[in-house]
Known about the structure:
Helix content: 25-40%
Largest sheet: 8 strands, antiparallel
Distance between the termini: 38 Å
Low-confidence stretches: 1-34, 257-265
Shape: globular
Radius of gyration: 20 Å
Order of helices and strands: HEEHHHHHEEHEEEEEEEEHHEE
Structural class: alpha+beta
Number of helices: 9
Amino acid sequence: MISEVERRTKRNSWRNRWFSIVILFVFLTSCQHGREYRFLEGYTQGTTYHITYYDPHGRNLTSQVDSILEIFEQSLSIYRPQSLISRINNNDSSAIADYLFTEVFNKAMEVSQATDGAFDITVGPLVNAWGFGKDTVPRIDSSRIDSLLQIVGFKKVRLTNGRIVKDDPRIFIDVNAIAQGYTCDIVARYFEKLGIKNYMVEIGGEVRAHGKNPGGRTWRIGIDKPITGNYVPGYELQAIVPLRNAALATSGNYRKFHVINGVRYAHEIDPSTGYPVMSNLLSVSIIAADGITADAYATACMVMGLDRSIQFLEKRKDLLGYLIYSDSAGNFRIWHSARFPLEE
């Protein structure tokens, strides 16, 4: 079995190779149109980022973007002992929520309420127990799951006057399921503040785009085919999405999983049961006005499953969904919102 560390390394290696090809193509296209787009790439939040933008003033914003990403990590990274969120998790009474934590927390509570708890930022202890967090080896049994469920639940934590109030001090907050989409928003806001109207920000596969690409067209974003072993983003696509001034986030069960006693367990944990979701829903892509919303609802839909997600999305005019699932014979099937944009 491929370890999670090996899987991440392999995925990042192929991701870098793929985006290098894309960046070369886009660079040549941009020269043809007489407009020089800039391309930034690097690592943040345990994954890669790729940013393309056109600045009429020709500014190189590498250091500024790196500073934004660093500030985000200082606030919301559970892997940094001195970050704000780590201090909150350790019950540091002097920890006061900054604007990043506050915005993420409030959006998380909003999505949790809307999905009846399918999205839950207190599920971290269960994620870790199943080997999808700091621990990469599953350490679970029914008694441990029952114990951890006592400290999981979005209604057990509140933000009051800038401070987190927990029903149980052991409650652990983890915003990784919403962080990358939100980081795309923070970078996008910075660009727009500078008057940059043409950009694409991709972090860990979540995307926010505005204006035109270097070819003068709407940005085109691929949705990967959810097949086991497809670790190369963009290598085998299910669909191409023209993304117009919006964000696209995808969550799936085909890249992060463990096989335990012959049973495959994906990384989406149901906060109500403590166990990974066993579903024929393979991948969910959500388009929303911003990355934080798209990211959170993509995760929530994976937890809710196919039928419940369809019913939910049909009622939400602010969300567009593209769901890939398998039928009883193992064939891929598609459901998508009526207005979901797809390239012919």
